[in-house]
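Record type: monomer structure entry
Structure origin: computed from sequence
Chain ID: A
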Amino acid sequence: MKIATYNVNGVNGRLPVLLRWLSETQPDIACLQELKAPQEKFPEEAILEAGYEALWLGQKSWNGVAVLSKIGKPEVSRTSLPGDDSDDASRYLEVKVKDLIIACLYLPNGNPVPGPKFDYKMGWFERLDAHAEMLINSGKKVILAGDFNVMPTENDVYKPEKFKNDALFLPEIREAFHNLIGQGWTDAIRHLYPNETIYTFWDYFRNAYQRNAGMRIDHFLLSPEVLPQLKKAGVDTDVRGWEKSSDHGPVWIELK
């Protein structure tokens, strides 16, 4: 089974790229982030024609998450993180597919720092941490997948010194990520490739993709029940170079 996560950076504007990627790589399940489309504007028909059933949470202009599946329609478990009823941002969609619980998430960026956006990011992370602990203690097969907007280590960004004051790399956000991992989750990419330079995002500016000046901010975290099934993992870096592509590359894992 192949599962992917992809920040599409606008599902309608980049629909040809998304459909081409789905056709060429054929993931069984795909988690999408940053749809940037209201609920009624999600391209369900085109996704169905591509062979995928979908669940999605849209939001006008911003955010938005979706789970696509060609192995059975996902069943909704949650459409938001618990802990803040006032948070109406479409950033978290938890579904069940077969025997897997998959949480598709789009963690806030948090810039500029300091400020309310970073405070919101830290609060969101605290709620994720609390809910993730419940999930991992359930003993079920759980996958947390998506754009975490966190570079966990210096090995996950091309020039760490340039990002020491960035919300994606501040010590407290990296500590929050490592605390999450400490619950018992496994970072799939780093489990298989502990020392390699692997990026999932390249800015549109300064020829970042051409220079491989990237960041690793899109992650798969696996519960102990899923880890023994992990077979392969990687990033479709070539997709980032396609015309009118997202600034992220799709990340994927294969399970036995």
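Annotation 1: The chain has a mean pLDDT of 98.
Annotation 2: Residues 116-136 form the longest helix (21 residues).
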